[in-house]
Amino acid sequence: MSRKRDKREVIVETRNLAMHFGGVRAVDQVDFTLYDKELRCLIGPNGAGKSTFFKCLTGQLSPTAGEVIIRGQDTTRAETHEIASLGVGIKTQVPNLFDGLSVDENIWMSARRWHNAKRARSLTSETIERMNLGDIRREIVGQLAHGQRQWVELGMVVAAEPWLVLLDEPAAGMTHEETARTADLIKEINTQAALIVVEHDMQFIRMISQQVTVFHEGQILMEDTMEAISNDKRAREVYLGNRA
Amino acid sequence: MDLVVAVLFQLVYGIANLALISLGLAIIFGMMRVINLAHGEFLMLGGYTVVVATNAGVNIWIAMLILAPLVVGLIGVIVERLLIRWLYGRMVDTLLATWGLSLLLIGLVTSIFGASTGTTISPPLGIIRIGDYSASGYELFLIGVTVVLFIAVWATLKLTKLGLVARGTMQNPEMSAALGVSNTRIYMITFGLGAAVTGLAGGLLAPVTGVLPTIGATYIAKAFITVISGGASILAGTAAGSILLGGVNGIFAFITGPTIGEVALLVSAIILLRLLPRGITGRFFRKSL
Amino acid sequence: MNGNDTLRAMKPVFVFALIGVVFMFAAPYVLQLFTIINLTTAIALAVLALSLALVWGYGGILCFGQVAFFGLGAYAYTIAAINFGGSTWAILVAVMVASAFAAILGYFVFFGRVSDVYLGVITLTVTLIFFSLIRRTSGPDYKIGNALIGGFNGVTSPPLNLPWDTSSFLFPEHVFYVAMAALILCYVFCGWLVNTRFGRVCAGIRENELRSELLGYDSRLYKLGIFTISAGIAAIGGVLFCNGVGRITPDVFNLYNAALTIIWVIVGGRGTLIGPIAATFGLFYLTSALGGQSVLNNNLVLGVILIFFVLLVPKGVAPTITDWFTKRRKPARNSRRRRKQGRST
Questions:
Q1: What total number of domains does chain C contain?
Q2: Would you say the ipTM is above 0.90?
Q3: Interchain CB distance below 8 Å, B273 and C116
């Protein structure tokens, strides 16, 4: 129905997506659509299946059934690097960094994937500037504080200049101030790219959200604005009731 | 007909042999996720125990079936206390340290007994006849011991507290690693047990292969690929790996000779790993022991 | 990294290479011929160590069977040189055979996504199978072209000859020059490689394979690439080795030599190229010295060294020294910065 209303290009679509672990249906028959330049948050209680869904999108898990289509390409059984190579920037829930390399080298690894040596160099510097990492650019990433590591990883996502960004709990473990900065950054990224953000922190979602998808027991419970969801009885029961 | 029986016997013996030399390695790997690179030297020590004991006048059956597992099991416990326990969770370092241990043991035994041993023990039990063909009674005995050993390990895993923890570890290594304290004793016992089974195998094989300080190297290649192909389940993995690789080896050896047999064994193991990177039991019989 | 950055990062490589060149030309004037011949063998082993330093230290690939490519290179060279009646193309054959074998083996293990511990065990197993296989090849049945493989006795390797004249063989002192030049070239090549995009991506994959994939790098291809290249370098070491010793036997594939290679890199340190090279020369002279007496067995000594380093100096000598220096220098630099800030306020 919204497809008719919305003329924007569909860039992520899942049809009947399912991921079963033994008898557990972590994701079950999920039909999901994301339009170009959209910013979508995925919420839901622990075990609702949002992280599993996220991993199916990024190729870290191979779905049991159904399909994933990213910009017209079937990526259901694609390897992670193939999905990333389409121009998708990904940040996982657990920080994933090159711990033995410096901040500079981490960002460079991302920039150099797409650009020649010279452009990669300048893009690395720009990104470091933009992410406010100038003071620590020579530090080894493994020795940084948690919040700084999150920023380095976001910097790697940004440096790839993706048109689709998938973030799994980007604000986890950040201070208030850092969370606010992350929200600003996400809005800034959204001017260039579509985003899917998996998040727990309701305040953070209110800062950035437009459209929100609520997961419950492996399925999509509802999709609406944050305001509407906050007022919805069912959504409050499964998720918000005990939190907000 | 007699030929078929004789060939089948050799095939079964080949499989049992693989299973026998691999079981101790599989116990340690399945429960602790430690690949013991000194496995070959544990086999070698089992052999030396038998040689030394029989030279001192001990009955060969007592030396093989009781002394060899006892001595090597004790060595295993000592090694776990002095070396392995400092390295839990560091798989690569454990691998390297056990390799160091392997060299150390070769060096020690060479220093004590010399680079070759004069004494060989001839296999007890005589020849059995299969029509026009003959087979070694001792080989038949080894097949029997392997079966009994598997049953014994199965019973231990199924019926004792150690077995309970072991099964937990096999199904969810992260969780049982998080259990912490109580695991240290379990690990010590496991390593000792694995070493004892290895010592028993080494002792039993000593009459067949003779003993040399460097004899471990001839066993380990086969033991490693059997365990890796089999996957993390101790009994099902070892059995599946032995049957598949022993079968391939036996068939190729029968057709083209032992050299090609060994190559076929390796090639099939590598192709298998491309298809099933976590071994046979990583995909099939996952809930098995 | 553009060209200038790469050159800057390679500064230490050029310094060590220069020291090597000086040594190469000075050594024949200072040392006796016997020592020079011995040294050639050590240099060949250093090339082997270098190849493992590349694939393990930088690629993070736990290859316990580097010696398999080394031995394969030596055998391929020997057999090709006997058949060709000259050494030049045989060197190329050696490198190609070892690299091709590594590429095939690597395809199975990397595309099967076999984990590093398994990889170590598999490569070691392959090495040991070569050992037992080639030992069985005595007798006239086992020959490739005109060359008998020779079983456990091995086969005599034809010496290197001048590329333009297959009848003028090199003397041992000339082989020393060739070996030293090869070591220096391989070292500079590796030093360059680890600073290229390819080398740095490999280092990234070593640090975090998933992150590399999330950035769009196909880690399997990079691993296969560095594995194949390092096998080729190991083969060059093998060619030099069988020239230094004069023959090649299956013993090259035994457990002791496989362990020795690992020990050079452990002692020298992972993540450096010069460390393992230096460790090779050091341990070569230690084991030669020990070979003269019978109390301490070589296996025993190496086992103790390996355990000692894994437990107490896990990073190896070279990185530990570097760490120690940076730790000493860092506070000094910080205090200087603080002084500067003090002035400006």
A1: 1
A2: no
A3: no
